[in-house]
Amino acid sequence: MATRQNIESVLIEKRVFSPPPTFAARARLKQSEREALQQRAASDYEGFWADLARQHLAWLKPFTQTLDQANAPNYRWFADGELNVSANCLDRHLAERADKPAIVFEGEPGDTRSLSYRELLAEVSRLANALRSLGLQAGDRVVIYMPLVPEAIVAMHACARIGAVHSVVFGGFSAISLKDRIEDAGARLLITADGGWRGGQIVELKSAADKALSLGCPTIEHSVVLRRTGQEIPMQPGRDLWWHELVPSQSPVCKPTPVGAEHPLFLLYTSGSTGSPKGIQHASAGYLLGAKLTSEWVFDLRDDDVFWCTADVGWVTGHSYVAYGPLAAGATLVMYEGAPMFPDGGRFWQTCQAHGVTIFYTAPTAIRALMKLGDAIPQAYDLSKIRLLGTVGEPINPEAWVWYHRVIGREQCPIVDTWWQTETGAIMISPLPGITATKPGSCTQPLPGINVDIVDDNGVAVTAPDAGGYLVIKKPWPSMLRTIWGDNDRYLSTYWEKFQGRYYVAGDSAHRDADGYYWIMGRIDDVLNVAGHRLGTMEIESALVAHPKVAEAAVVGQQHEIKGESVFAYVVLNGARPAGADATALSDELRRWVAEQLGAIAKPDTIRFADNLPKTRSGKIMRRLLRSIARNEPITQDLSTLENPAIIEQLRGEAAIESNPRRSR
Ligand code: WT7
Questions:
Q1: What is the DSSP letter of 429?
Q2: CA dihedral in degrees (164, 170, 176, 181; nearest 10)?
Q3: Minimum CA distance residue for ligand 1 atom 3
Q4: More confident site: 662 or 129
Q5: Res. 12 pLDDT band, cuts 50 70 90
């Protein structure tokens, strides 16, 4: 459990920022409406959600039952209703905004493209027809491994249109990670690209995809390959199909397949506390309702807004606030393919200026990295159209919050610090920008209809202000995950067992201040948050021990100025502990190895070699001790059980040398 020490930094900034009066006056959601929503949710929870589901979604067959608790905690929402998610995001806008830009795209090399709602629908329909021509049917799984280009959204919606279940795998993940996800999902089809642009380089997606398929993936029948970067790539006849040969000749009209509200819309793999990532399964109607409602409530989306969420569609943020929520709300979204700092630190701001971005949503890690470059860069661009800022993915330190507010927001924009998870599908705790006074570092209060609380180890609500505990959600909500693909027992044990099925356990610790504001303190499980991305320590450990030279490994998080956390690995080798240049060479080799096994984001920043790892009497690795050492914190743990107390010196890196030269520079 995190201690008060962890949150001290967030208590430094004591100012409270009220919504600017001009913003509040025009906001979509006013205080009186929020109160009415809250009262309705309190007095008739199911009626509250049923009303919203009827108002916000276009149903092909109306539902009669709102919440089905028969198999709790496998809850079902609106289960006898039918709809199509793609039709809800595209077709329904044709009457009012057919020619409005849906996607304004900018590639990293500077190419731009705009797709209206009408054009996006035609593209989605063509690909959907192509998928049907390949024999794909409702319920079939399709893995999408693409750069952040409009076709990634087209692919997601084409799946939704025919009821196929997509699983997007982030383009930064390795061939091996891709293979594991394809096999776990049992996908019939892979949609990929020759490559994508990042930092001036080509990310070789097709070659990684080929490697993944060569390692296994017996269920894959075809891969559809988009030409993006244009380099020569091998195509396997019969299996690989070029997008530009398959799609343009298809009819631009494709009748959407009606699916049940509970039909799975997508799987998205995320790290947990065991070695294998879990396929978080989301349903169609409840998910879309959450994504759409929060897009409107939290981002205050209006018809003249230009919304830019910088997330890749490989993460849940890119699902809910790029591919689905803003389109369901009829917004114009900006999509940028490449690295935030390419060709220089002004790229984000130049993109905001060029496309007239009005709402900007990014992660604290990006804000910190941009802040480090100084005020002059953003101040060289016209950011005056920005009216709302958002952040997500990890607690934001007050210094970064205040910089974001002052320099990017010109002290005129509310900041919504949005807490949620892959599992929750949509934002759960966040300011409402026209209503909530914000405090830097706090995600403030739950949205209407979301029943958040903090409980102690026995599940008893913690009522004293500022006392920490487990963050839980006390009632099911429509956009919640439905299960873990292929492993419902893991769903039950991960999220529900701790409090006997009474509450959803988020895996975060938090505290609530005297004003009822929530402050997230961090993960309580063995999950790291590196640059806003979730990484399981066990996954990285398994990757390390898969290396022939490694006998044992323990991975912990270390504070990192920009990334929030970085990966710190303690490694025990099969042979002798290396020193000097040998240690440096081996640690570089292991870093490359982890990148190959999992993806570059999982690379340890530091590797420290030791003769063994500290363990309890029952043989459990003393992770808290390793964490204290990595963070240079005083050691408070009982060390009496250690067989070899000299190990502490090695772990501290005093006897050993610092094995990663990059850190000491
Ligand atoms: C974990 C979920 C949800 C989209 C991105 C991450 C942390 C998320 C915040 C926030 C403090 C946050 C939590 C959470 N987190 N948003 N505003 N303040 N912490 O999705 O990969 O599923 O990770 O990210 O620890 O449990 P994810």
A1: B
A2: -30
A3: 421
A4: 129
A5: low
Most confident of 71-85, 551-565, 593-607: 71-85
| One-letter identity of residue 166 | H
Evaluated on CA atoms 447, 451, 456, 460, the torsion sign reads: positive
Average pLDDT over every residue of 182-202: 98
User: Which residue's structure tokens are 């209006």?
Assistant: 302
How many angstroms separate the alpha carbon of residue 419 from the centre of ligand 1? 6
Ligand 1 centroid to residue 532 C-alpha, Å: 7
How crowded is residue 406: how many other Cβ atoms within 10 Å of its Cβ? 11
pLDDT value at residue 659 = 44
Q: What is the mean pLDDT of residues 198-202?
A: 97
Expressed in angstroms and rounded, the spacing between residue 272 Cα and the centre of ligand 1 is 13
pLDDT band with cut points at 50, 70 and 90 for residue 5: very low
Under 8 Å between Cβ of 312 and 145: no
Calculate Rg over the CA atoms of the chain. 24
Using CA atoms, how far apart are residues 627 and 323, in angstroms rounded to an integer? 37
Centroid of ligand 1 to alpha carbon of 421 (angstroms): 5
Of the two residues 47 and 579, the one the predictor is more confident about is: 47
Pocket test for ligand 1, best of 310, 520, 563 (most atoms within 8 A of CB): 520
Mutate to test the pocket of ligand 1, among 322, 365, 394, 481 (most ligand atoms within 8 A of CB): 394
pLDDT of residue 582: 93
- Which range, of 188-197, 499-508, 592-601, 649-658, averages the lowest pLDDT? 649-658
| Span from the CA of 393 to the centroid of ligand 1 (angstroms) | 4
Q: Whose CA is nearest to atom 27 of ligand 1?
A: 421
pLDDT at position 297: 98
Query: pLDDT tens across 551-564, in order?
Result: 889 999 999 999 99
Pocket test for ligand 1, best of 7, 278, 508 (most atoms within 8 A of CB): 508
Could you tell me the two tokens for 574? 């099969």
Which residues have a Cβ under 8 Å from the Cβ of 244 and sit 6 or more positions away? 226, 227
Considering only CA atoms, which residue is closest to atom 1 of ligand 1?
421
Taking CA atoms only, the protein residue closest to ligand 1 atom 18 is 395
What's the mean per-residue pLDDT of the chain? Answer: 93
Give the integer Cα–Cα distance in Å for 70 and 73.
Answer: 9
Taking the CA of residue 523 as reference, the ligand 1 atom at the shortest distance is: 25
What pLDDT does residue 73 have?
98
What does the alpha-carbon distance between residue 209 and residue 193 come to, in Å, rounded to a whole number?
A: 9
Token pair, residue 94, equals 């044709």
All domains of the chain in start order, with CATH: 21-70+87-429+436-460+470-505 (3.40.50.12780), 527-658 (3.30.300.30)
Q: Whose CA is nearest to atom 12 of ligand 1?
A: 394
Which residue of 534, 535, 539 sits with most ligand 1 atoms within 8 Å of its CB, as the best mutation to test the pocket?
Answer: 534
Q: Which residue has the tokens 């790539």?
A: 233
pTM, entire model: 0.92
Contact 314, 322 (CB under 8 A): no
How many Å apart are CA 498 and CA 483, to the nearest integer?
17
Query: How far does the centroid of ligand 1 lie from the alpha carbon of residue 564, in Å?
Result: 12
Ligand 1 cavity residues, CB under 6 Å: 270, 316-317, 392-395, 417-422, 443, 506-508, 520, 523, 529, 534
Quote the tokens at residue 357.
């971005």
